[in-house]
Amino acid sequence: MKIGIDMGHCLTGYDTSARGVFVESEYNRIVGKKVIQKLKEKGHTVINCTIDGGVSSMYDSLARRVKIANENNVDIFCSIHFNAGGGEGTETYLANPSAFINQEYYKKNYAIAKSINDKVAASCGFVNRGVKHEDFYVIYHTKAIAVLVEVCFCDSKSDFAKLDTDKVAIAICEGLTGEDYSVKIPKVETTDNLYRVRKSWSDVKSQIGAYRILENAKKECDSRSGYSVFDKNGVKVYPIAKAENPKNETIPNSSNSKEKIIKEYSEKGLFTCTVDAINFRNKPYVGSDNPIQGQYYRGEQVYYDYVVITDKYVWISWISAITGVRRYMPITDRIKNEKWGYVV
């Protein structure tokens, strides 16, 4: 199946999005990119109809999206949005019945819209506001079956607390195709105080042992290449991951040693880690008052939208899709001229 995915609104200029607890256009893309990836993994052809900027008007933005979909003869078109205006919950739109060539085509479109709406609402426990009719430009002028889903309200703290972008992406994919996209993870007995030896915490099938004594887990880990030891919370405890500086990390004792910001600017890209691990924090400096929040490991990737250059590091930044907190991670040691990955 050939599916057109439109991640709603532009990032700059005309046709920018609503802003609430989070910025709609950013989350349109967080969900949309996951939808595209999952559809491709199932063998579908995906046409990205998104326009990020460079338009002369809102009409120009909408017309370009439709043009991409129509020129590529997509079978289904889905525009992904988040709502605003003080409400809560999920609603999905299709054009009015009069816009369709016949009743059968309308019924088919309605069935897909309802499936997407019901699955998205159920995926995170959102209020189900139902399927609605509106002749929005992108769904009215697209030749294919076309829907516009408003996942939830970006100005609702309640909706944001429920939001799980992975679950939403799966729900959209299932509603579009009628296929099962759920991840089947074998159930593993979770006994407190066990150290598990795996290739990664998410790769349950790779587990080769679980030990009450850490030293025994380390020995098992050392006997195999590519394995690590994780505690009951999924935190990697062995081998000790390397921090921003792959050789060592000097932590200043106070904020008096904060890095001097030389330049900062908006930039969108995808970073791939090429060292053992890089720590990320909530602010762009290394200090005891700015604790590590997590790590990205070799081969892992993260989309970013902001760059901060200090006198010590080049930092990239993004908003966590899970917590909504902005994160900062160094990718270059400016003093030693060492790069710890690459961006595209």
Secondary structure: elements and pairs:
Layout: E1 2-7, H1 24-41, E2 45-48, H2 58-71, E3 76-83, E4 90-94, H3 103-124, E5 128-133, H4 137-140, E6 145-153, H5 157-162, H6 165-177, E7 195-198, E8 209-211, H7 214-222, E9 228-230, E10 236-238, E11 261-273, E12 277-280, E13 294-297, E14 301-310, E15 313-319, E16 326-333, E17 338-339, E18 341-343
Parallel strand pairs: 1-2, 1-3, 3-6, 4-5
Antiparallel strand pairs: 4-6, 7-8, 7-9, 9-10, 11-14, 11-18, 12-13, 14-15, 15-16, 16-17
Q: In a nutshell, what does this entry contain?
A:
By secondary structure, this protein is α+β, with helices and mostly antiparallel strands.
Description:
By secondary structure, this protein is of the alpha+beta class. The chain folds into 3 domains: 2-177, Aminopeptidase; 195-238, no CATH class; 255-343, SH3 Domains (SH3 type barrels), CATH 2.30.30.40. Helix content is 25%, strand content 30%. The protein contains 7 helices and 18 strands. It has helices at 24-41, 58-71, 103-124, 137-140, 157-162, 165-177, 214-222; strands spanning 2-7, 45-48, 76-83, 90-94, 128-133, 145-153, 195-198, 209-211, 228-230, 236-238, 261-273, 277-280, 294-297, 301-310, 313-319, 326-333, 338-339, 341-343. The strands form 4 sheets. A 6-stranded mixed β-sheet has the order 2-1-3-6-4-5, with helices on both faces. A 6-stranded antiparallel β-sheet has the order 17-16-15-14-11-18, with no helix packed on it. Strands 8-7-9-10 form a 4-stranded antiparallel β-sheet, with helices on one face. Strand 16 (326-333) and strand 17 form a beta hairpin. Helix 1 (24-41) crosses helix 6 and helix 3 (103-124) runs antiparallel to helix 6. The protein is globular. The chain starts with a strand and ends with a strand. Mean pLDDT is 87; it is low at 185-191 and 241-256.
